[in-house]
Specification:
By secondary structure, the protein is an all-alpha fold. The protein is built from 22 helices and no strands. Helix 13 packs across helix 18 and helix 20 packs parallel to helix 22. The longest helix has about 40 residues. It is globular and about 70 Å long.
Length: about 475
C-alpha cells in the first residue's frame, strides 16, 4: 500500500482524536455531554444528521447495488433519507421543545415509567447491535484499504471511535461528523472523473451498461418499495436516539427546522454520486478493462470493489482522501450509536431503576463507562458474528415498528394514554418480528414495517380511547429530582 494513502488515513484518525480532546474541554454537565448543551446551529445540525445516516450502506453499499441488480434506482436508498428529513420538518420544533435527552425519557414523562423502561430496553438492544455492525464495517474497510489484518483493524477503529466519543460526548461527535460528511461527499465526488476517464466517458458508460440499469424504479422494486423506504426512515429517524438526539441538541426550534432542510439537501446532492461510480464499474467490467485485483474484489465482496478500483486508477492523494471519506461513513454512524447506547442506559435505566439519587456527574460517568463496555462487547461481537449486518437491519426497524406511533402521537393528541402506548409498542414490534421471521404472512412487495405501523396505530387509538389518560395533555410531566 502506498505510504501517502496510509499517511492520509492515519492523519484523519489523529484528527478525530484531537477533536475529541478539544471537545472534552467544553463538557461541564450531563446536558453538555448528551445533547451538546442544546447549542447546535443549522450547519452543525445538518452535518451531524447527514453524517450519522450516511453510513457504509449509503456509500459503498449503494456503489455495490448500482453495479449489481439495482442500477440507478439504488439512489432511492439515499434520496428516501432526504425525503424523510423534509417530512420531519413539522416535527422538528416539537422534538426540540420537549427538552428531553433521550427518547425513552420522553416516553417516561409523557406516559409512565414502564413505557420509558420498556422502550429504553428495545432501543438499547438495537443500538448495541448497530454499534457492533458499524465497527465490523469500519474494520472491514480499513482491512481492505490498508492491507492489515481484520482483528488489528477492528481494534484500531474501536479505540479511535470510543476515545473521541467518550471524551467529548455529542459535542465531539457533532464536530467530527461535520468534518466526516464533507470527507464522504468530497472523497467520493473526486473519484468520479477518474472512474469516467478509465471507462471512456459517460457516452461509453451508457453504451456498455444495460438500459435497465438506468431506470430509477425497476431495480429497487417499484414505487411501493420506495414508499416503504421513506416510511421506514421517517419512523427510524424519529425514534432512533442516534438521529433524534440532534433535534434535542438544536439551539432552538428554528435551527432544528433549518438543520433538517440542509441535511435533506446533502442527501439529495450525494444520492447519485455512488450510483455513477457503480455504473462506471459495471461499464469497466463489461469492457474487460478492470484490473485482475478489482475482479477478485468483485468476486469476494462487491462492497469493497471501489477501494480496489481506486488503488489501480487514482493518484495516491486522491485515493487517500477517498479512503478517509469511506471510513468516515461508517465511523460517523458508529460514534452516534455508541453515544446513544450509553445515554439511554445511564439516563433511563440506571438513574430511574437502579440509583434514583444519582447526581448529574454520576450519570455522565455511567454514560462513559457504558460506552466503553458497549464498545468492548461490540468488538467481541464483530470478531465472531458472521451475519451481524442482517441482524442490524432487523434491529433498526424493530424499534421503529412499535415506538414510532406513540412517540409522534404523544406530541399532538391529548387523548394519548399509557394503555395505548404499551399496546402499540408491544404488538407493533411483535407483528414486525413475526413477519420478518416469516411466522405470519407478509404482504407481497410491501415493506413489513408498513403493516406493523398500521396495526400499531390502530391499537394505539383504540386502547387510548378505551383506557383514557387521567389528564388530557401533550405536555410532559416534570422530571422528579
Amino acid at each position: 500500500m502506498n505510504v501517502t494513502i496510509i499517511a492520509i488515513v492515519i492523519l484523519y484518525m489523529l484528527l478525530m482524536l484531537a477533536i475529541g480532546f478539544y471537545s472534552s474541554k467544553k463538557i461541564n454537565s450531563n446536558t453538555d455531554f448528551m445533547v451538546a448543551g442544546r447549542r447546535l446551529g443549522p450547519l452543525l445540525m445538518a452535518g451531524t444528521l447527514a453524517a450519522t445516516e450516511i453510513g457504509g450502506g449509503s456509500s459503498l453499499g449503494v456503489v455495490a447495488n448500482s453495479y449489481g441488480s439495482w442500477g440507478a434506482s439504488s439512489a432511492w436508498y439515499i434520496i428516501a433519507m432526504g425525503i424523510a428529513f423534509i417530512i420531519l420538518i413539522p416535527l422538528a420544533p416539537k422534538f426540540r421543545a420537549s427538552e428531553v435527552k433521550t427518547v425513552p425519557e420522553y416516553f417516561r414523562r409523557r406516559y409512565d415509567k414502564f413505557s420509558g423502561g420498556f422502550s429504553g430496553i428495545i432501543m438499547l438492544m438495537a443500538l448495541i447491535g448497530l454499534t457492533a455492525g458499524q465497527f465490523k464495517a469500519s474494520a472491514s474497510i480499513l482491512e481492505v484499504m490498508l492491507g492489515i489484518d481484520y482483528t488489528t483493524s477492528l481494534i484500531i477503529v474501536t479505540v479511535v471511535i470510543t476515545v473521541y466519543a467518550v471524551m467529548g460526548g455529542l459535542w465531539s461527535v457533532t464536530l467530527t461528523d461535520f468534518i466526516q460528511v464533507f470527507l464522504i461527499v468530497i472523497g467520493m465526488t473526486i473519484a468520479i472523473p477518474f472512474a469516467l476517464k478509465l471507462a471512456g466517458g459517460w457516452t461509453t458508460v451508457r453504451q456498455t451498461v444495460p438500459a435497465d440499469h438506468f431506470s430509477l424504479t425497476k431495480g429497487i422494486g417499484g414505487w411501493g418499495q420506495i414508499a416503504g423506504y421513506v416510511i421506514m426512515y421517517v419512523a427510524t429517524f424519529s425514534v432512533g436516539q442516534e438521529a433524534v438526539s440532534r433535534y434535542y441538541a438544536a439551539r432552538d426550534g428554528k435551527a432544528a427546522i433549518q438543520g433538517s432542510i440542509l441535511a435533506a439537501i446533502v442527501n439529495f446532492v450525494f444520492a447519485f454520486i455512488p450510483v455513477i461510480l457503480g455504473l462506471c464499474m459495471l461499464s469497466l467490467f463489461n469492457q474487460g478493462r478492470l484490473d485482475a485485483s478489482v475482479i477478485d474484489a468483485l468476486k469476494t465482496n462487491t462492497r469493497y470493489a471501489l477501494p480496489a478500483l481506486a488503488v489501480v486508477s487514482m493518484p495516491a492523494v486522491v485515493t487517500g482522501i477517498l479512503f478517509a471519506g469511506i471510513i468516515s461513513a461508517t465511523m460517523s454512524s458508529a460514534d452516534s450509536d455508541l453515544l446513544g447506547a450509553g445515554s439511554i442506559f445511564s439516563n433511563d435505566i440506571y438513574r430511574v431503576f437502579l440509583r434514583k439519587e444519582a447526581t448529574d456527574k454520576e450519570v455522565m460517568l455511567v454514560t462513559k463507562i457504558t460506552m466503553v463496555l458497549v464498545a468492548l462487547f461490540s468488538l467481541v461481537t464483530a470478531l465472531y458474528a458472521n451475519n451481524i449486518l442482517t441482524l442490524l437491519a432487523f434491529s433498526f426497524t424493530l424499534r421503529a415498528a412499535g415506538t414510532f406511533i406513540p412517540y409522534v402521537m404523544g406530541h399532538f393528541w391529548k387523548k394519548s394514554s399509557s394503555a395505548g402506548c404499551i399496546s402499540s409498542v408491544l404488538l407493533g414490534s411483535t407483528v414486525f418480528f413475526l413477519m420478518d421471521k416469516h411466522l405470519i404472512p407478509s404482504i407481497p412487495k410491501v415493506n413489513n414495517i408498513i403493516p406493523a405501523l398500521a396495526i400499531s396505530l390502530i391499537l394505539f387509538v383504540v386502547f387510548s380511547l378505551l383506557f383514557p389518560p387521567k389528564e388530557e395533555r401533550t405536555s410532559l410531566v416534570p422530571e422528579k429530582e
